[in-house]
Amino acid sequence: MSRFENKVAIVTGAGGGIGQVYAEALAREGAAVVIADINVEGAEKVAAGIKAEGGKALAVRVDVSDIDSANDMAAQAVAEFGGIDYLVNNAAIFGGMKLDGLLTVDWDYYRKFMSVNLDGALVCTRAVFAHMEKRGGGSIVNQSSTAAWVYANFYGLAKVGINGLTQQLSRELGWRNIRINAIAPGPIDTEANRSTTPQAIVKQIVQTLPLARMGTPEDLAGMCLFLLSDEASWITGQIFNVDGGQIIRS
To answer: Which UniProt keyword terms apply here (predicted)?
Structure first.
């Protein structure tokens, strides 16, 4: 398949985990992919792997909470590949995050956390939308979570914000022919999850799922590619659960 031939995609937080799987899936279907991550070593390793398989990739260091850094990311994508068609806002503080409550978390940590996990999606969207518009339009996928519908302290609050941001931006981007949607994963088997979330809690959640197993990053990739592709050309402002049936919304 080559749904993304001659297209350019930026995937933030693609130096490992779910972002890496998104980037590799896009590259396999023909896209030139910018592997954007604050961990430049990880980004370079992923980019090298894609190029070894015959794909096109560029590793770029980005701090998604920093406007200048995000603008530089976009500029490098345009300079290397000629434009930007797609953005996946996947970068987040998760692996190793502090586990604390909204009433007690250190305020400086909270503000840094939200600057990445919520504001980062807006910062990166602002950095790329004009470049997408020049190409005739594009598509954006934000990474939400089922944490938006359960208690999950400031992590859950950030994902509530991502859902709202997705809906609000659909109104500002739609007339520019840019679509924006979000994926809300359930429990996904990643190193970040294993090292951060108490595994007793994860096990309890998985046991209650209709599809009673941990999800994998590959379970999410199909939805991401669908939402970016022309197959979803009349879909915008929506949040799609990929969660083994964890959340039921009527």
So the answer is: Oxidoreductase
The structure's pTM equals 0.96
To the query of whether residue 110 is one of the catalytic residues in this protein, the response is no
Q: How far apart are CA 181 and CA 14, in angstroms?
A: 18
Q: Which of 118, 144, 142, 148 is nearest to 247 (CA)?
A: 148
**65-123: per-residue pLDDT in tens?**
999 999 999 999 999 999 999 999 999 999 889 999 999 999 999 999 999 999 999 99
What domains, with CATH codes, occur in the chain? Answer: 8-241 (3.40.50.720)
- Helix/strand/coil for 214: coil
**Residue 75: CB partners within 8 Å, gap ≥ 6?**
none
Q: What is the DSSP letter of 210?
A: S
3-state secondary structure 25-64: HHHHCCCEEEEEECCHHHHHHHHHHHHHCCCEEEEEECCC
DSSP letters of 66-119? -HHHHHHHHHHHHHHHS---EEEE---S-TT-----TTTS-HHHHHHHHHHHTH
**Measured distance between the N- and C-terminal CA atoms of the chain, rounded to whole angstroms:** 35
**Which one from 22, 86, 110, 155 is the annotated catalytic residue?**
155
The CA distances from residue 105 to 48, 90, 97, 197, 199, in Å, are 39, 24, 11, 17, 22
**Which amino acid is residue 91, in one-letter code?**
A
Who's near 101: CB < 8 A, 6+ residues apart?
A: 153
